[in-house]
């Protein structure tokens, strides 16, 4: 099986899109992240859900587990949403020098090539494309399912 | 001056310039300087490692190590978060009351723990409370770090320069409590009042946002109640040990090491976690520094400088005390006060001995401590805690510029020295 066979249609967001919309896309469809494209539709990077969390949870709370416990649930949810309001997807992304390398393989890549790339980049998503043609995205869950079914250990 | 004295001064000055200008890492500069001193025969292994006057002061190194281990464990309990949130709720979110409580907590904690750890513990809660109250955290952070440097001056273990002074002068924990703590209490009261004026634009009270602070649950901050009680028990025993160390004939370093060992033994904290917060770099820096200063002692440079200074003050201890206070404050404002105090301690020791260990002469030690500790508040680079807070603020998206800090720091440091001078004069020259 090749990467193009594993690729699924996946929602794309633009750098200028609303951050709250991107977060909702991840939340409502229970996706591990979204693919970010530029104005011409070229993939730029992947925005994993964990990066959205890094943006909305203050750094001082991330570094101090004791502080994370003192929040009231309602108040903290409001604080989180307010941090996303009026922001763009670009603002959610880490600075360019720290940005995730775009996890990308060609349509001919094997299952293990796909797995190796995702493991190396710690990415829950893998873009499958040839030149300007985007075939879709491989998710960790789909890839694991394929690997397990090959060995006959799928549920 | 003999060739060995000239050589030792050159090596020491070169290393000091590198430390002060941060052209190379301070540990590399101190170790490099120590290595050159040893290689040139300006000191030797026997002196560097075993001499009480001209070698590594193991009391200082192990006292710091013991306290770092204890603090590392206490950090994991959530005690600070609990105290700060409870204080903010008790102040009912009123900005000045919150600031006053935070600076008092910081100052008291700094007297028992080191300043950098204290500000690292208080800063995250400050961000949280200010965020909830819709306040700018910068004035709060600056006030806290200033309070930390003031509070740390009160005790032997509060600030590394005090540890060096205590060891070199043979001063006890109680000596610091008797001679410095009363003044620091008064200074803290003055500082809190001054904060009301210094940061007057920062106290915007928004009644609607107070509920957001009142909704925080401080009890949840305590992650491990058993560890909290164990840590508090050991800290109390260690503080008691410091108070009684002269009567028990135990060095403060032994008390701290016993406390650290006991805490690791009775708690479920792993050894790796217990030593995770030990700042090995700082300990090695101290060792290198002591070897370098030891070479100056061994080659007789310190004796000559002391004799020259004794001649300059002409047997007038008041001139020496005031001069030391002002010069220490000025130098500590721009360079690290640890190497400064490490260098000055043997010189002050000689001056005190030359004047016959009278109470007036002994007050030079307090003058050195007050000047070096409080002078560090003047600029953003004057003390390690200042640099740490600037880094934390930048990381959390509220950067504090050098001058933003310094314009408050200069006022507080200047005021502190202005109050310290009459204190020293009255206590040791008028009322003695």
From TrEMBL, chain A:
Residues 101-148 form the CBS domain. CDD domains: CBS_pair_bac (cd17788). It holds the Pfam family CBS. InterPro entries: CBS_dom, CBS_dom_sf. This is CBS domain-containing protein. It comes from Lentzea flava.
TrEMBL record, chain B:
InterPro entries: Arsenical_pump_ArsB (IPR000802), Cit_transptr-like_dom (IPR004680), Diverse_Ion_Transporter (IPR051475). Residues 16-371 form the Citrate transporter-like domain. It is found in: Cell membrane. Its main location: membrane. Pfam families: CitMHS. It is a multi-pass membrane protein. Belongs to the CitM (TC 2.A.11) transporter family. PANTHER family: P PROTEIN. This is Membrane protein. It comes from Lentzea flava. The lineage of its organism: Bacteria, Bacillati, Actinomycetota, Actinomycetes, Pseudonocardiales.
């Amino acid at each position: 099986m090749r990467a193009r066979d594993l690729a699924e249609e996946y929602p794309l967001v633009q750098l200028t899109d609303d951050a709250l919309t991107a977060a909702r896309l991840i939340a409502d469809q229970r996706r591990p992240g979204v693919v970010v494209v530029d104005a011409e539709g070229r993939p730029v990077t992947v925005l994993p859900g964990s990066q959205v969390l890094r943006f909305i949870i203050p750094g001082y709370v991330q570094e101090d587990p004791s502080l994370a416990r003192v929040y009231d649930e309602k108040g903290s949810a409001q604080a989180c949403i307010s941090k996303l309001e009026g922001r763009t997807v670009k603002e959610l992304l880490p600075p360019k020098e720290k940005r995730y390398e775009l996890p990308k393989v060609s349509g001919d890549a094997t299952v293990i090539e796909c797995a190796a790339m995702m493991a190396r980049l710690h990415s829950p998503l893998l873009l499958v494309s040839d030149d300007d043609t985007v075939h879709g995205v491989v998710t960790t869950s789909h890839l694991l399912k394929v690997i397990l079914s090959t060995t006959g250990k799928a549920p | 001056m003999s060739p060995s004295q000239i050589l030792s001064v050159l090596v020491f000055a070169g290393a000091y310039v590198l430390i002060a200008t941060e052209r190379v890492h301070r540990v590399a500069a101190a170790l490099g300087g120590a290595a050159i001193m040893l290689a040139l025969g300006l000191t030797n292994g026997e002196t560097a490692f075993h001499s009480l006057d001209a070698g590594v002061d193991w009391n200082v190194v192990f006292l710091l190590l013991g306290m770092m281990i204890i603090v590392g464990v206490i950090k994991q309990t959530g005690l600070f978060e609990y105290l700060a949130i409870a204080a903010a709720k008790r102040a009912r979110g009123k900005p000045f009351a919150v600031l006053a409580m935070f600076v008092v907590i910081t100052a008291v904690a700094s007297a028992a723990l080191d300043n950098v750890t204290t500000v690292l513990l208080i800063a995250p809660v400050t961000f949280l409370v200010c965020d909830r109250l819709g306040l700018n955290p910068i004035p709060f952070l600056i006030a806290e770090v200033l309070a930390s440097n003031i509070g740390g001056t009160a005790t032997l273990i509060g600030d590394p320069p005090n540890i060096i002074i205590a060891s070199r002068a043979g001063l006890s924990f109680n000596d610091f409590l008797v001679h410095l703590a009363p003044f620091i209490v008064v200074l803290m009261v003055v500082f809190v009042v001054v904060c009301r004026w210094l940061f007057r634009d920062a106290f915007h009270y928004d009644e609607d946002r107070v509920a957001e602070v009142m909704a925080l649950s401080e009890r949840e901050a305590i992650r491990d109640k058993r560890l909290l009680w164990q840590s508090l028990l050991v800290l109390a025993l260690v503080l008691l040990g410091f108070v009684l160390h002269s009567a028990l004939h135990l060095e403060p370093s032994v008390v701290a090491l016993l406390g650290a060992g006991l805490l690791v033994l009775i708690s479920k904290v792993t050894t790796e976690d217990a030593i995770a917060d030990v700042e090995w770099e700082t300990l090695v820096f101290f060792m290198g520094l002591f070897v370098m200063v030891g070479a100056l002692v061994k080659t007789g440079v310190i004796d000559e400088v002391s004799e020259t200074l004794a001649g300059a003050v002409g047997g007038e201890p008041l001139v020496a005390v005031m001069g030391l206070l002002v010069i220490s404050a000025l130098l500590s404002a721009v360079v690290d006060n640890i190497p400064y105090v490490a260098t000055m301690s043997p010189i002050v020791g000689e001056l005190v001995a030359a004047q016959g260990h009278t109470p007036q002469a002994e007050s030079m030690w307090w003058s050195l401590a007050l000047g070096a500790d409080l002078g560090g508040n003047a600029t953003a680079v004057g003390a390690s805690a200042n640099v740490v807070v600037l880094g934390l603020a930048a990381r959390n998206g509220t950067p504090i510029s050098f001058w933003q800090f310094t314009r408050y720091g200069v006022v507080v440091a200047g005021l502190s020295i202005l109050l310290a001078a009459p204190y020293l004069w009255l206590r040791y020259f008028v009322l003695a």
